[in-house]
Write a structure and sequence with these properties.
CATH superfamily: Tetratricopeptide repeat domain
Number of domains: 1
Mean pLDDT: 91
Largest sheet: none
Distance between the termini: 26 Å
Helix content: over 70%
Number of helices: 9
Structural class: mainly alpha
Order of helices and strands: HHHHHHHHH
Length: 182
């Protein structure tokens, strides 16, 4: 899902120094932390700037700050509930915290570590996911149902084929994890 010219301009004004210093904002842990700091500073000045919430949510996920990740995606949805990116971000946040169901599953942990090696941005930490569920008063199944509902809604929208494929893969993973949810 693409960013508008105005959104890119706003991000460049906030993240220009991070990019100048580190190059890729996700290139190192220091770069990720500097990006989060820059976006949080920008949000301190303008709590209603959707693009800052949206992008900081990605970095919270990368940094495995799942509570902040969920909060930021909820804020995106609150600010722009009809924007497919808000819906997708919130669905992804709920999906991420369903990994709490995998606590103690060595095979899933090994598979997740392999996937993380291939795709470093992929967030997987069942223990941190469980902590967020506990804080929210939810079960993994409830978070899974939220994710399924939001992803399902997105499939009724006209989306680029790559986005639709990612949504279908996410739904397939959720249905495998929670076969009782439809």
């Amino acid at each position: 899902m693409r960013r508008s010219v105005v959104e890119r301009f706003k991000l460049n004004s906030v993240l220009g120094t991070v990019v100048a210093q580190y190059g890729n904002p996700k290139g190192s842990r220091e770069a990720v932390l500097a990006t989060i700091s820059a976006l949080e500073n920008a949000l301190g000045k303008n709590r209603k700037e959707w693009i800052y919430w949206y992008v900081v949510s990605e970095y919270y996920m990368t940094n495995e700050e799942f509570g902040k990740f969920v909060h930021a995606t909820q804020k995106c949805f609150e600010l722009k509930p009809k924007d497919p990116r808000s819906i997708y971000a919130l669905a992804t946040a709920y999906f991420t915290i369903t990994h709490a169901k995998d606590i103690g599953d060595t095979l899933k942990r090994e598979a997740a570590n392999e996937l993380k090696r291939i795709s470093p941005d992929w967030a997987y930490n069942p223990e941190k996911s469980q902590q967020v569920l506990d804080e929210m008063g939810l079960t993994a199944e409830q978070a899974g149902m939220e994710a399924i509902t939001l992803f399902g809604f997105l499939l009724s929208e006209k989306l680029p084929s790559e986005d639709e494929m990612n949504i279908r893969l996410s739904l397939k993973g959720l249905h495998a994890k929670f076969p009782n949810l439809k």
